[in-house]
Amino acid sequence: MGTGNTGCTTHARWIAVLRILVGILFVHAGWPKLIMLFSNPAYVGGMLEKMAKAAWPPVYAHFLTNFAVPHAQLFGALVALGEVAVGIGLILGLLTRVSAFFGAVMNINYLFAIYKISPGFLSSNNFWFTVLHIVFIGTAAGRAWGLDALLMPRLPKWLRWLG
After folding, report:
1. How many domains does the chain have?
2. Is residue 42 part of a domain?
3. pTM assigned to the model
4. Quick one: which of 77, 67, 83, 66 has its CA closest to 44?
5. Domain-located, residue 70
6. Which domain holds residue 37?
7. In the 3-class helix/strand/coil scheme, how is 119-142 assigned residue by residue?
8. Of 41, 62, 63, 157, which one is least surrounded by beta carbons within 10 A?
9. Is 155 a member of any domain?
10. In terms of Cα–Cα distance, which of 26, 28, 21, 77 is closest to 48?
11. Is 1 part of a structural domain of the chain?
12. Mean pLDDT for all residues in the chain
């Protein structure tokens, strides 16, 4: 495929479009949670309790029940800030592989947390978001229409895997 005048292939540009859209969705999902964290802190605890009852495998349900629920404020803040940070990283194409890795980790955790409510990984949007995150990691998606294209050449070679 041709590179046009941007220095990146058509495939890379399409992956960049997906990266930006997923980033927008992550910010859209995380921002209300940040607001809810400050306006209604009990909401987070209630959500974690529901997820703990629906979680699979049993060891994950045990983790949610005995660790996450008692520390609901901390986990609520980590999820909300994590979603917004992943979203911004993907939108800007900044440290894209790191952002995509943590986005995949969050999606996999959510899949485990809702398993009994929505059994079957393939039926969940979070499974497909995880697949997209893996694609972003594997293709260095931030190097097309992203700040990684500017940042990575300036980093030492051993750090260039970040973007």
Report:
1. 1
2. yes
3. 0.89
4. 77
5. yes
6. 10-147
7. CCHHHCHHHHHHHHHHHHHHHCHH
8. 157
9. no
10. 77
11. no
12. 89
